[in-house]
Specification:
The complex is a heterodimer of chains A (330) and B (253). Chain A is built from 13 helices and 2 strands; from the N terminus they run H-H-H-H-H-H-H-H-H-H-E-E-H-H-H. Chain A is mainly α. In chain A, strands 1-2 form a two-stranded antiparallel sheet. In chain A, a hairpin with a 4-residue loop joins strand 1 and strand 2. In chain A, helix 3 runs antiparallel to helix 4 and helix 6 runs parallel beside helix 8. Chain A is globular, with a radius of gyration of 21 Å. The termini of chain A are far apart. Chain B is an all-alpha fold. Chain B has one domain: Up-down Bundle (Ferritin). Chain B is built from 10 helices and no strands. In chain B, helix 2 runs antiparallel to helix 5. The longest helix of chain B has 29 residues. Chain B is globular. Classes of the chains: A mainly alpha (330), B mainly alpha (253). Chains A and B meet through helix 3, helix 4, helix 7, helix 12 and helix 13 of A and helix 1, helix 2, helix 3, helix 5 and helix 6 of B.
Chain lengths: 330, 253
């Protein structure tokens, strides 16, 4: 997941008559569910939109290490610490596949990192919220990765081959993350009164930010139409959000926790849960950089990059020396 | 000291080394110089924590009063920790972290290779499993030390500084005492001093390739393996690590 508010680079959908021959062949492939591969012709706007989407997704995986890293050193048991380390390692690995998928579109990882650090590219709004108690780590696995999976399962069918294949791989690992998160929060919800309080606090704070992960409401989501026609996006934001709510409410009830929204109610007629919209003004504020952690998250990534410059330079210099020595020997 | 007392001390030394170093390495999460290093550091920390679970579970068993690996990790105070001082010093920059890793990994691999032949089957089994992971750790830390030592002027200077800082902590790994003598007598573990010649040969080769100078001083800080005197850093590490278990006694996580 983790792609929100992706501005589709297009002036609107063209009718078949308006398309060039290349564009028609391209659209026919998409309509026939044939994957687009890196060497295939593609409209420039398709390429640009995908770079934005995959790049944002990759950045989210990388920045997402920070809120979890916040608790690795305080994990309460060796097993929880090991699970969290394994999860964070997976996420950095997801970042790597996704940067590689983006590279097939002609943008380098360094360029993408540069755009993240300069604020030209975003990462998911969810990672601008803090992790304040240990139950947040369970909730991040259960709610945040749970929300991510819903989006990513749909994206396994996305039209761009490398992105679709990355999603298939990532989904397998994400479902393990969501399960371990739920188990961690279960231990707390069924634990001591203090632990239950932590679990409730985590659900209350993270519920609406998790709903925001799917992006704005369809009526305000101006970029979706072209992305859906290109099968870069498979389901609408509201469809995915509803699916998440329907799946998660029974899990909250099973834990014996209070629902985080008084308006959550089963709607017999719709066959879905009704629920309140998140506060969209808060969402747009977070996107603009005013979330509780935006400044610190970006500063941490910037510092890691700057502090690591000498390491990257050193290793590169060494490999050049070795290559030169090999050449000289031949 | 009974044989079981000595065996317990030996197991705590092994388990506390991996616990404390695993903790230190995990502090890097999300802050490494490049994404591949984030993955490698998390992977190393994960292996070390997994090894801790095995060593400390066995320590609890040998101690015989029903303590779990978690009880030993989270409910002992600094004076009960038996790790070498080398693993508790702060990470410093990436160079110091990887230099410490190499200095430890090289010892760790030699030790585990010998422990595979331990007269205690449980020790031999843990060593058998751990040495596979540690073989990878030392390959990676070795390559990084060489790459950065023989990289740019700046990376060279930083790696030399790291080696100079860490060198006085190396000797403790090889300083035997009554516990070790008891382990040797029982054929459970080797005399630490017997690993030194191989270790020095590895270091000489790697540091030469890395264009780094091994300090001449033979001075060694000690006090970690016997708990006599840890550094000031360990208390802070335990404060974070043990906080939840201490603040909410008896809770299950």
């Amino acid at each position: 997941m983790y792609a929100q508010m992706i501005k589709t680079a297009s002036d609107g959908i063209k009718s078949r008559d308006e398309m060039s021959d290349e564009e028609r062949t391209f659209q026919d492939k998409i309509d026939a569910d044939i994957k687009i591969e890196p060497k295939d012709w593609m409209p420039e706007d398709y390429r640009r939109t995908l770079i934005r989407q995959i790049g944002q997704h990759a950045h989210s995986e990388v920045v997402g290490q920070l809120p979890e890293g916040n608790w690795i050193t305080r994990a309460p048991t060796l097993e929880r610490k090991a699970i969290l380390l394994a999860k964070v390692q997976d996420e950095a690995g997801h970042g790597l596949y996704l940067y590689s998928a983006a590279e097939t579109l002609g943008v380098s990882r360094d360029e993408l990192v540069e755009m993240l650090l300069s604020g030209k590219m975003k990462y998911s709004s969810i990672f601008n919220y803090p992790t304040l108690n240990w139950a947040d780590i369970g909730a991040v696995g259960w709610l945040v990765d749970g929300a991510a999976i819903i989006n990513q399962v749909a994206l396994q069918r996305t039209s761009y081959g490398p992105y679709s294949r990355a999603m298939i791989r990532i989904c397998k690992e994400e479902s393990f993350h969501a399960r371990q998160g739920y188990h961690a929060i279960m231990a707390m919800a069924f634990g001591t009164p203090e632990q239950k309080k932590m679990a409730q606090d985590a659900v209350n704070r993270l519920w609406f930010p998790a709903l925001m992960m799917f992006g704005p409401s369809d009526k305000d989501s101006v970029h979706s139409e072209q992305s859906m026609a290109w099968k870069i996006k498979i389901k609408t934001n509201d469809e995915l959000r509803q699916q998440f709510v329907d799946q998660t409410v029974p899990q909250i009830l099973y834990l014996g926790l209070d629902l985080p929204d008084p308006n959550i109610q089963w709607n017999e007629e719709r066959g879905h849960y009704d629920f309140s919209d998140p506060d969209w003004s808060e969402f747009f504020n977070v996107i603009k950089g005013n979330g509780p952690c935006n400044t610190d998250r970006l500063a941490a990534r910037g510092k890691a990059w700057d502090d690591g410059q000498w390491v990257r330079d050193g290793l590169l210099a060494h490999s050049r020396k070795k290559a030169a020595a090999r050449m000289a020997a031949e | 000291m009974t044989r079981d007392d000595a065996f317990l001390q030996f197991l705590l030394r092994m388990g506390d080394n991996t616990l404390v170093l695993g903790h230190r390495v995990s502090e890097w999460c999300g802050h490494a110089p490049v994404l591949e290093e984030d993955i490698a550091l998390a992977n190393t920390a994960l292996d070390l924590i997994g090894q801790t679970q095995m060593w400390l579970a066995l320590a609890g068993e040998v101690q015989g009063d029903g303590k779990s690996a978690d009880d030993l990790a989270f409910l002992r105070d600094a004076w009960d920790f038996r790790n070498a001082l080398l693993v508790e010093v702060p990470n410093g920059d990436f160079g110091r972290t990887l230099m410490r890793q190499f200095l430890f990994d090289s010892w760790h691999k030699l030790m585990l290779e010998r422990l595979k032949g331990s007269s205690d089957e449980r020790v031999a089994a843990i060593a058998e499993k751990a040495v596979k992971e540690v073989t990878y750790h030392v390959e990676r830390s070795r390559d990084t030390v060489i790459g950065l030592g023989d990289g740019t002027e700046e990376s060279h200077a930083r790696m030399q500084e790291a080696l100079d800082y860490l060198w006085p902590y190396v000797g403790e790994l090889f300083a035997g005492d009554a516990v070790d003598a008891e382990m040797v007598a029982a054929d459970i573990a080797p005399d630490p001093a017997s690993l030194r010649a191989d270790y020095d040969a590895i270091l000489a080769e790697v540091m030469a390739e890395a264009t780094l100078s091994i300090p001449k001083s033979g001075f060694a800080h000690k006090g970690g393996r016997d708990g006599r005197m840890h550094t000031e850093h360990l208390g802070h590490l335990l404060t974070s690590m043990q906080w939840l278990q201490r603040a909410y006694p008896g809770a299950r996580w």
